Predict the structure.
Amino acid sequence: MTSELVEKLKSGLKGNITVISDDGVNDVVVLSDKKLIKSAAELIKGTHDILFMLTIVDRNPNFELNYLFSNYRNKNIIILRVNITQDDYKIDTVSKVFPSADWEEREAYDLFGIEFKGHPDLRRILLPEDWPGHPLRKDFEVTDDVRNWTGLDLKF
């Protein structure tokens, strides 16, 4: 049985959704056009309370972003998957629709270097501002700049 939300996403996003799972409890959909992320979030906001997690999968050279939304009343979770390519590691923020995305997006920026356009405070959240690079990327290299950023001779 296809969930009402999945049908709403298919209709509202004009076919730019591929359904992976739609059992009405744990739905997984893939958004084919990252430019529609805000529209998708707005549609999801009608039925879900919170974005509780944003996970990133480094598929070197591309990234897969998985937005996990929850509805506390009926315990439904929907995962919205979006792929971004190496030629443009930027995507619109959803923090204006789901304020809980604020720190999730900052963490993704800090550790993977993904830029969230329109984010109200996009800066590092875990690492110091002068940290060289984004350490959870597969192509991150431990260079002398990384070893010596604290002034200590760190052994990696």
